[in-house]
Amino acid sequence: MAYTFKIQPAEKVRLKHYDPEHTGGLTREQGEAKLAVLSKELDVLQEELYAAGLDSVLVILQGMDTSGKDGAIRHVFEPCNPQGINVTSFKVPTAEELGHDFLWRIHQQTPERGMIGVFNRSHYEDVLVVRVHELVSKKVWRARYEQINHFESMLAQNRTLIFKFYLHISREEQEQRLLAREQDVAKAWKLSVGDWKERAYWDRYIEAYEDALSLCNTEAAPWQIVPANAKWFRNVAIAQALVDGLRPRRKKWQARLAEISTARLAELKVYRDSL
Ligand code: AMP
Ligand code: MG
After folding, report:
1. Is the shortest distance between the CB of 92 and ligand 1 below 6 Å?
2. Is the pLDDT of residue 96 over 70?
């Protein structure tokens, strides 16, 4: 069973029609047990992906402030070998980055074959925060949806498997999370006045997200909307989508691993025979 919402081709996404509270009929206990199983499978898949070195995997996480991008990365990839995973957080661009096209800094961080690259924010910020705050003209950001589709399609044609997750929380849930951070001294470092300021732009962000989700939902790089009010369910949904997406590649990776093993054993035999 899939726990994320795939967007239909050509669908004009209206986020109010997607329920952020959805928990797939699972209890929290069932969800946590499920995550444990899925994360273990993800660890096995990651090792085969790495050893076979045929494909790369790009996981893009987007969502409003407090939607749980960091938490999802921590929990979903916890059992995986850290050497096979590269996490990149995209912040406000530096002067050097701004001196190039918006995809320049992104392309430098795309995963090499065998690796899982996780993006905490991404090139989508260039049609989200940049659009909401009018950091470039409408003409410039308008053109970016198509540029993004071309870029992602190029990556996919070069054997990058792309997963894009929008972590969907409600406005009320965000308020609860921001207030909770204020109550917890140990978590207050996460607070920023900016989060409350950005919250005032909620509706404009939703509008920008709806366009990004609708206009950049391609076959090569489909979006999945993850109900994220329940943190545990968010993790299950992402892990399930990754396992479902990677599992079909396993046969190919295992065949490659068998080839590599045969070659290595043959080399070893030649060496031994020469002694
Ligand atoms: P955080 O994810 O809380 O560490 O914050 C990173 C900040 O960088 C967010 O406020 C983003 O909106 C901002 N950011 C990321 N990419 C861009 C971009 N391309 N242009 C402007 N701001 C960005
Ligand atoms: Mg933040």
Report:
1. yes
2. yes
The residues, any chain, with a CB within 8 Å of residue 227's CB and separated by 6 or more, are 3, 5, 18, 19, 20, 21, 22, 23, 168, 233, 234, 237
Which residue's alpha carbon is nearest to atom 21 within ligand 1? 92
26 and 236 in contact (C-beta within 8 Å)?
yes
pTM for this model (two decimals): 0.96
Ligand 2 centroid to Cα of residue 46, in Å, is: 29
The owner of tokens 């795939």 is 6
Please state the atom number of ligand 1 nearest to the C-alpha of residue 194: 10
CB atoms within 10 A of CB 136: 16
Section 37-52 average pLDDT: 96
Q: How far apart are the first and last CA of the chain?
A: 56
Structure token digits, residue 178: 């921001």
CB of 113 closer than 6 A to ligand 1?
no
Task: List the residue whose alpha carbon is closest to atom 7 of ligand 1.
Answer: 91
Alpha-carbon span 5 to 117, nearest angstrom = 22
